[in-house]
Amino acid sequence: MTNVHDNILGLIGNTPMVRLNQVTKHIPAKVYAKLESSNPGHSTKDRIALHIIEAAEKRGLLTPGSTIIETTSGNTGFSIAMVSIIKGYKCILSVSDKTKPEKIAYLKALGAKVYICPASVPADDPRSYYEVAKRIAKETPNSIYINQYFNELNIDAHYQSTGPEIWEQTDGKITHIFGCTGTGGTLSGSAKFLKEKNPDIKVIGVDADGSILKTYHETGKVDESEIHSYQIEGLGKNLIPGALLFDKIDEFVRVNDEDSAYRTREIALREAIMGGYTTGAVVQALIQYAQNNTLTEKDIIVLIFPDHGSRYISKVYSDDWMAEQGFSKNGFSSYDAVLKTEMEK
Ligand code: PMP
């Protein structure tokens, strides 16, 4: 039997790549999207959930009925909940109140217990989703705390899977990789592997307007004045994650909510790829990078598309939401407006 698996976890990894033919066609390089939405939990986080939980099993830290605890903006939660079901563990998650109700419903549908915490408080506030997860982990016997922001197995999962896949899929010809950085694990692990193979590969991190990562990379300092709230989930931080290997990243590009939202919808409309909000962010980052750097036909660029658009229907794919954000000044706030502009070109 081929392509038949014992359970859903057998589908994790080995995600396909698709060439982008429209949204970046003004850039001479070949641009490929690695579709992490093809994982069974629809995001890159399936890889770390499986890797970290299996590492804990190997160390004898988990027994049937153990509890897995994590703080998550959504994707890591889905993945941990999925792995927990198959392996017979309980799953407790703390999420920020920025998380949309349908994401929370999805987590609950996968059997997770969910604590909703304010996004507006500092990371060290006892009400923050970090502190709530830590407290629950301390109070729950026979449990592990995944701690994806400071767990080096987060990097290792991508060093062992995503990086080698990209190397093989591009026949070792990749010249640039672009990845969104939340915990930093996806890009750090992939970059570590790829730079070992070829140190000339350029690694570009994508940071959010309102986050501190780009400036920290450039100056080694946190500029508190740069912190403000923003809408893109899963990208950027108000703390320095231990899973982000700054020395593997050549440059950060910072993108804003509006450009990334428009770009996400453009990718759906022109490439027929329904990606999450950070899919737009990573394409937007390449477009900004190409304005300041020379790219040629010989360049092979890989963009990591972290998750699927179905989780953002009432957010970036909603015309009402776009209008509420005031994202209409460039006339791209609705599907119709984008299509009309494209047809007029
Ligand atoms: N995009 C989305 C939608 C995410 O949820 C995340 C994870 N927080 C990322 C990008 C960034 O991935 P990583 O944590 O591996 O840096």
What does the model show?
Helix content is 38%, strand content 15%. With 345 residues, it is an alpha/beta fold. The chain folds into 2 domains: 8-38 and 161-327, Rossmann fold; 45-149, Rossmann fold (3-Layer(aba) Sandwich). β3, α2 (75-87) and β4 (90-96) form a beta-alpha-beta unit. The N and C termini lie far apart (49 Å). Residues 9-307 form the Tryptophan synthase beta chain-like PALP domain. One of its GO terms (biological process) is cysteine metabolic process. Pfam families: PALP (PF00291).
Fraction of helical residues = 25-40%
SS elements, strand count: 10
Shape: globular
- Tell me the number of structural domains: 2
Alpha-beta content class: alpha/beta
Q: What is the CA-CA span between the terminal residues?
A: 49 Å
- Count the helices. How many? 12
Gyration radius, in Å: 19 Å
What is the CATH fold-level name of the largest domain?
A: Rossmann fold
Runs in which pLDDT lies below 50 for 5 or more consecutive residues are none
CATH class of the largest domain: Alpha Beta
- Profile the largest sheet: 6 strands, mixed
What would CATH call the architecture of the largest domain? Answer: 3-Layer(aba) Sandwich
| Bound small-molecule species | 4'-deoxy-4'-aminopyridoxal-5'-phosphate
Task: Estimate what percentage of residues fall within beta strands.
Answer: 15-25%
What order do the SSEs take from the amino end to the carboxyl end, as H and E? EEHEHEHEHEHHEHEHEHHEHH
- Averaged pLDDT: 93
Strand order of the largest sheet: 1-2-10-7-8-9
